[in-house]
Write a structure and sequence with these properties.
The protein is of the alpha/beta class. The chain has one domain (3-235): TIM Barrel. Helices cover 42% and strands 20% of the residues. The structure holds pyridoxal-5'-phosphate.
Length: 241
């Protein structure tokens, strides 16, 4: 075997092991929160990861993947095994054209303006685009997302746009040293999710609550998340070069 093959064997084995750990912890948190493991979707976040490793994860059952950048996803897509993709990174309106129709869902919709552009494009190609409203739950200025205070009215406004289906909420809470602090943000999001779902707003089908990453997916599931987005804990540290 060449050195590259040996390194790949090692990396594939690491991915297999990591997947088993993530699945086990998600299952445990699901049961502790009164749900069954199948109720929680695990997304493999594949930014910076090369197609051969992504394909290894897909072959291992991780058919839902998440990418942050339009260009990166579109360039890898032809090399990937059959999968379902969500866009999870900030989307600029000038990239909307390229991505609508290429992914199953856009999780990072953070303004009515962006939603309108998505709706226009979806209509032009005769599709309905599933989206999540990204909420800035921590009120951090540095982060994208709809301000907490405006969440409900913004979701209602987005829902009124044609060719869009609002499927739920997404959040990236501030990084917390203590897991109890993370849980407070997740719990707040869960409350918002339940509130918005109970309003039965026209054109919404609120069922996804996307929250939890490598450092906190366990806590997120304990508090009600049903979609966790895990990168590092599956593929290892990222190399952005
Ligand atoms: C990178 C990223 C993740 C995954 O982060 P990890 O800490 O590597 O698990 C999840 N969600 C979003 C929006 C991301 O950009």
């Amino acid at each position: 075997m060449t050195e590259k093959q040996l390194l790949d064997e090692k990396r594939f084995a690491d991915i297999d092991y990591n997947l088993s750990v993530v699945r086990e912890r998600v299952a445990q948190a699901a049961r502790l929160s009164g749900r069954s493991p199948e109720d929680i979707q695990i997304m493999a976040v594949t930014k910076t990861v090369a197609p051969e490793y992504i394909n290894h994860a897909i072959a291992g059952g991780m058919t839902l993947i998440g990418e942050n950048k339009v260009q990166e996803y579109l360039s890898k897509k032809p090399d990937l095994l059959p999968h379902t993709a969500h866009l999870i990174g900030h989307l600029q309106t000038n990239k909307v054209r390229q991505i609508v129709g290429e992914v199953e869902m856009i999780e990072s919709v953070d303004s009515v303006h962006l939603a309108r552009e998505i709706g226009k494009r979806a209509e032009a190609i005769g599709k309905k685009m599933k989206i999540l409203a990204e909420i800035n739950v921590g009120g951090e200025e540095s982060k994208t997302g709809i301000p907490w205070e405006a969440a409900e009215e913004t979701v209602a406004e987005i829902a009124s746009i044609g060719s869009i289906e609002v499927c739920g909420l997404m959040a990236i809470p501030p990084f917390c040293e203590k897991s109890d602090d993370s849980r407070a943000f997740f719990s707040k999001m869960m409350q918002m999710f339940v509130d918005i779902r109970s309003k039965n707003i026209d054109n919404t089908n609120i069922k996804v609550l996307s929250m939890g990453m490598s450092s906190d997916y366990y806590e997120a599931v304990l508090e009600g998340s049903n979609l966790v987005r895990v990168g590092t804990s599956i593929f290892g540290g990222r190399n952005y070069r």
